[in-house]
Amino acid sequence: MMRRITSALVLATSMTLASSAAAEDTFTFEPAGALAPTSGTGREDDRVYVPAMRFPIESGPAYANSQVWGHGGNSGPKGSGQCDAENYSYPWRDNYCESRSWAMPLCPSGTGHQGQDIRAATCEKDVHWVVSASDGTVTNIGSYSVYVTASDGTRFDYLHMSEVTVKEGDDVKRGQRLGKVSNQFGGTPTTVHLHFNIRQNVAGVGFVFVPPYASLVDSYKELLNPTPPPPDPPPTAAPAAPPPPKEPTSQELPAEPEPEPQMVDSGCASAPASTSTGALALVLGVTVAGAIRRRAGRRAAR
After folding, report:
1. How many whole angstroms separate alpha carbon 23 and alpha carbon 291?
2. How far is residue 113's CA from residue 109's CA, in Å, rounded to a whole number?
3. Contact status, residue 170 vs residue 180, Cβ threshold 8 Å
4. What is the torsional sign of CA 1, 8, 212, 46?
5. How far apart (Å, rounded) are the C-alpha atoms in residues 107 and 70?
6. Minimal CA–CA distance to 141: which of 124, 118, 158?
7. Which candidate, 223, 120, 123, places its Cα nearest to that of 179?
8. What is the C-alpha separation between 28 and 240, in angstroms, rounded?
9. Which DSSP state fits 202?
10. Could you read off the pLDDT of 4-47 as tens digits, one per residue?
11. Rounded to two decimals, what is the model's pTM?
């Protein structure tokens, strides 16, 4: 049964060659393992072997289908050409495990096609950029192949490119340009397409080519409808200004300090003077003074 995903983007793209058709709005794809008729027995495997992979062609639309059993291929319809509109329309079709002589332990027959053929938006060669599916290091460049190995050991193979922009030993980033979709095949041209492989260690099997189809479907959906970035966090509110100092009320005003008591000298310490003691001293002083004056007066009269 054909599967569908509706793109929010309009993918109508004018094809440069007259034999190419415009892309539809709706991306559809056959299930994993559903190969072109008479092309072999596929592997029904929906596992995404590389989650969050970047689609290996820079921009869409793109079309996954068979180069050999498609239009213009050696086993395709007679009289057809590789630039026919049928090759540039949905649905996608898996061609991992398609009939080949390569040893393939994960394929039902034990032999088959190692990866997936992908056509870019148009049938033109040397136009559409191929990009790295993951961060990694360029571990090999052959006459028509570039290998990029990720830190976890996964190897990504890109075949048939022109204008290769990297060299062996280069570190590359996810989405970095590697070359252009072309028909390079070691001196003998093939059809214009990208052949894409994923190779991983599989428990009990070894380092083998794994089905790339489900990973490509996932990454192509993300290419058509990118996940929006998370919203920016709300700005941090400035700290509130401290309240102005509170004006004290009459009830809160501090009491006036009591006046210091008057001090009199004594032989030991300063002590507060008593009002009654001062008055008594004055009276006694006056009395004594009067007595002295009276005594002096009597002596004078004698």
Report:
1. 140
2. 11
3. no
4. negative
5. 21
6. 158
7. 120
8. 56
9. E
10. 544 433 333 333 333 334 445 699 999 999 999 999 999 999 99
11. 0.72
